[in-house]
Amino acid sequence: MPTSIEEAGADLRFRWYGARALLSMRLEKGWGVWTMEYRPDFNAVESGMDVFINWEKDFVGKEAALKARDRSVSQKLLTMVIDTDGIDVAHDEAILKDGVPVGYVSSGGYAHHVGKSMAMGYVAAEFASPGTTLQVEILGSFYDAEVLSGPIYDANGFNMRS
């Protein structure tokens, strides 16, 4: 009989991890955090959460959600890989396109599985296409960032299910 959580989960490769590890892993999956990426300031379409809405079902706020879905949005949430020299974003850094501000970083950090600096943020919708090169200002210097099309690690969720 196992005497600890570690022993009970040994066959599952169970390991302890901390909040910073969890935040790093969620960046690699493109998963936002409530109060950072997801909050009342942004509607479901802007934040990409509209894919989880059952539009056939009635719900509180459906009329407003349908209006948001059916009009073009001005901003979109995205995930980026930033080409840095050992520095990471924290929060609220400027995102630019050709020197013009187009958005801001909502969160970010170092992604250990892929060995890259990553960030999530909101930008003007026309700059949110995958492959777009943007710049992020970190401590007064500008670094190129590439908009991703999806998770950079375990895109199909296989590792989570194995």
Report on this structure.
- This protein is an alpha+beta fold and 162 residues long.
- It has a domain at 11-40 and 74-150: Elongation Factor Tu (Ef-tu), domain 3, CATH 2.40.30.110.
- It has five helices and six strands, in the order ααααββββββα.
- The protein has a six-stranded antiparallel β-barrel.
Q: How is the secondary structure organized here?
A:
Layout: H1 5-8, H2 19-29, H3 44-47, H4 62-70, E1 75-82, E2 94-97, E3 100-111, E4 116-124, E5 133-138, E6 141-147, H5 158-161
Assign a percent range to the helix content.
10-25%
Radius of gyration, Cα only, in angstroms?
18 Å
Overall pLDDT: 92
Strand content: 25-35%
Shape: flat
Series of secondary-structure elements, N-terminal to C-terminal:
HHHHEEEEEEH
Strand order, sheet with most strands: 1-4-3-2-5-6
Secondary-structure content class: alpha+beta
Total count of helical runs of at least 4 residues: 5
What is the rounded distance between the termini?
A: 24 Å
Tell how many strands the DSSP assignment holds. 6
What is the CATH homologous superfamily assignment of the domain at 11-40 and 74-150? Answer: Aminomethyltransferase beta-barrel domains
Uncertain spans, ≥5 residues at pLDDT below 50?
none
Instruction: Quickly name the level 1 CATH class of the domain at 11-40 and 74-150.
Output: Mainly Beta
Largest sheet: 6 strands, antiparallel, barrel
CATH architecture of the domain at 11-40 and 74-150: Beta Barrel
What oligomerization state is this entry in?
single chain
**CATH fold node name of the domain at 11-40 and 74-150:** Elongation Factor Tu (Ef-tu), domain 3
